[in-house]
Amino acid sequence: MFLKFLGHACFTLQIGDTALIIDPYLNDNPQAVVNSTEVKTNWVLVTHGHTDHFGDAIEIAKRNDATIITISEVARYSGLRGAKTHAMYIGGKHDFGKFSVKMTHALHGSSIGSNPIEYLGQPCGFLIFSEGKTIYYTGDTGIFGDMTLIARLHPIDLVILPIGDNYTMGPEDALEAVKLLNPKHVIPTHYNTWDIISQDPREFKNAVETETGIPVTILNPGDTFEL
Ligand code: NI
Ligand code: MN
User: Fold this and answer.
1) Fewer CB in 10 Å around end: N or C, the chain?
2) Among all ligands shown, which has an atom nearest to the Cα of 49?
3) CATH label of the domain that carries residue 112
């Protein structure tokens, strides 16, 4: 399967002829390499309601007749706006055919809008199981000790985790998270979109590879990764 980074925290995953997009923030995303109208997908995974993740989910889902897989409140919000949805909650797993998803918790918030602000339940992360591999997309989160439990229950081939700091864990905590998760591979995300989350991913890569021996791949928007 092929993973592609579209900028900020948006990724696509191609599993044979099945396409997923995760946290499809594209049209307002300063890093985005494609416009939402170019996306062809079967599934849209959304970790939480914040604009830099929920993004263009409804437009993409409706145009593609794709289903949004997300937490119940975000599913309800999306369903009321005409999208097909599959609601889940933390700890739950579901088989979607070519892949399964288990929802994990994330230390973060989930809301949309500003006046008024609407709260959309808990934020989440995703364990994606396909072709014998396990990808852990942590979503926006701080570090938490139960990462050890997640990795014990589901040995991780690839973790995609934020390093931007301020809104999520920064590079020091992300290094500790890698030690808790002990994955086979690491891809950092959620940095350099704006000045406030500016980081040098090469420093993170060096620290992780020196301290753990686990390889880190830095993806620029548009880059792909095969696993
Ligand atoms: Ni967020
Ligand atoms: Mn975010």
Assistant:
1) C
2) 1
3) 3.60.15.10
Is residue 217 situated within a structural domain? no
Number of domains in the chain: 1
Task: Please check whether residue 226 lies inside any domain of the structure.
Answer: no
- Domain holding 132, by residue range, is 2-212
Q: What are the contacts of 42-45 at 24+ separation with CB within 8 A?
A: 42/18, 42/66, 42/67, 43/18, 43/19, 43/67, 43/68, 43/69, 43/96, 44/20, 44/68, 44/69, 44/83, 45/20, 45/21, 45/69, 45/70, 45/101, 45/126, 45/128, 45/137
- Ligand whose nearest atom lies closest to the CA of 106: 1
pLDDT digits (tens, 9 = 90+) for 48-107: 999 999 999 999 999 999 999 999 999 999 999 999 999 999 999 999 999 999 999 999
In the predicted model, what is the mean pLDDT of residues 22-43? 97
CA 140 to ligand 2 center in whole angstroms: 6
